[in-house]
Design a protein that fits this description.
The protein is built from four helices and 22 strands. It is an alpha+beta fold.
């Protein structure tokens, strides 16, 4: 009887061990299968930084002060003494009108003034002798004042029948030639003031204009100087949009760095706004299923891929500046992100930290 019981016990133990071994083998195989199905991915840290979205624009270089010089009155141009590109000094004679008619008008006004002066003197003497009436004296006085004003006008027009350089600078353009008939105020020459420096003028859309402040730094490049990068600062911002284009005119004072600049050179401008925001920086390759404003990235949670929706502020270099969505995320998936779905098992390989551009 004891022998039978012993045999039964041995058999039960063997059966238990066999069942246990089978279950353990199945669990091991299942775990291995899951491990084989896991997607290998690489993650990088999420970096935090205070940055501002740069503003890009295209404009033109120009002298800070450019003057359109013209004659006060119309007439035939006698002589233009300068050429385009020529340097001039302050007070230099630049152009004159033919003065025959103008000088005749001055002589006419001078003679009329002298006659009015004699008439007034005679009227005063006659009035003192009680020969002329008060009305006659008043008429003579008025005639004298009118003639005096006419002479002043004639001499003023004679003075501005010549153009003198208001400052030292360079002639940028000639709008007329000798012997042409010009009207009053029509531009004859465009003069750049050499002492006021150089600027770049650009037009910005409203979303960019509101982010710019006086004194913001900028970098300027020009096709004419491909190996040079010029520094500039915002010096003027228009308070209203241009009615013709709808953009806001912004002026940047430019450091020429000794380059021989010409008015009208095309300039590419990169402005760094002083107003910054806190953003999370992630590589572009971690971004999936989105557009320039929003999309998704993957992070790892409990060895599984977790999709996170993010809002993109801007792109800087090879990184995305994310303004919302990564507040509680430390790492994102880069390599392998395109093959993932939410909840997929992953095997993580860590990479080096990316530097902020």
């Amino acid at each position: 009887m004891k022998t039978t019981s012993y045999i039964i016990a041995i058999a039960s133990l063997g059966l238990f061990l066999q069942v246990s071994t089978g279950c353990s083998s199945k669990e091991t195989k299942s775990a291995m299968a899951e491990q084989e199905r896991a997607v290998s991915v690489r993650t990088v840290p999420v970096e935090r930084a205070e940055l501002a979205e740069p503003i890009r624009a295209v404009g033109m270089a120009a002298s800070k002060e450019e003057s359109r010089l013209s004659f006060k009155i119309g007439g035939i141009i006698e002589k233009i003494y300068v050429k385009e590109g020529q340097a001039v000094r302050k007070g230099q004679l630049l152009a004159t009108l033919k003065l025959s008619e103008i000088n005749a008008q001055v002589n006419q006004a001078q003679n009329a003034f002298e006659k009015a002066e004699r008439d007034l003197s005679r009227a005063k003497n006659l009035y003192g002798d009680s020969v002329a009436t008060l009305e006659q004296l008043q008429d003579a006085t008025t005639g004298f004042e009118v003639a005096k004003s006419a002479l002043t006008i004639a001499k003023f027009n004679q003075q501005y029948a010549s153009i003198y350089a208001p400052s030292s600078g360079k002639v940028l353009k000639r709008f007329a030639e000798e012997n042409e008939l010009t009207s009053p105020g029509a531009p004859i020459l465009l003069l750049a003031d050499a002492g006021q420096g150089w600027v770049v003028k650009v037009g910005l859309a409203d979303r960019d204009a509101v982010r710019v402040r006086l004194g913001d730094n900028a970098e300027v490049t020009m096709d004419a100087f491909p190996d040079m990068v010029f520094s500039a600062t915002v010096s003027a911002i228009a308070g209203a949009a241009s009615p013709m284009t709808g953009v806001y005119d912004v002026e940047l004072r430019l450091d020429p760095k000794g380059a021989r600049l010409l008015s009208g050179l095309t300039a590419k401008v990169l402005i760094e706004p002083s107003q910054k925001q806190t953003v999370a920086l992630v590589p572009i390759e971690s971004f999936i299923e989105g557009d320039k404003n929003s999309g998704n990235v993957y992070t790892v949670s409990n060895d599984k891929a977790q999709k996170v929706s993010v809002k993109v502020a801007f792109i800087t270099g090879n990184q995305l500046a994310v303004s919302k969505g990564l507040e509680n995320v430390d790492r994102v998936i880069t390599d392998g992100a395109a093959y993932l779905k939410d909840g997929v098992l992953v095997t993580t390989l860590k990479s080096e930290t990316l530097s902020v551009k």
